Amino acid sequence: MARTPGPAFEKAYKKATYLQNASNDDMLDLYAYAVIARAEKDLASTPKPGMFDLAGKAKRNKWEKYVNEGVKPADAEKAYVAKVDELVSKHGLKDTVPAELK
Description:
InterPro entries: Acyl-CoA-binding_protein (IPR000582), Acyl-CoA-binding_sf (IPR035984), FERM/acyl-CoA-bd_prot_sf (IPR014352). It is a single chain. The chain is mainly α. About 60% of the residues lie in helices and about 0% in strands. It has one domain: Acyl-CoA Binding Protein (Up-down Bundle). It has helices at about 5-15, 25-40, 55-70, 75-90. The termini are far apart.
């Protein structure tokens, strides 16, 4: 069931770990797009987070929103790369980013 995204996604996925000062909402967008792009999980069969798992609830809600909007894996992959590019130009990357990700 898992899908292998292209090299642009993989590079953006690695680069996202070095984002500087991105908001929680931006990071939730990236999470949801990544889950959809990789088709790692199925929303219907994935258990809902527990009552006190606020971060888990926020991630699932964002993921569910995009699934309900009909976002397909190929579209999520493109959106992820675009979102990382947007956040890099807006916030920059940490100084520790490897040269191959710049």
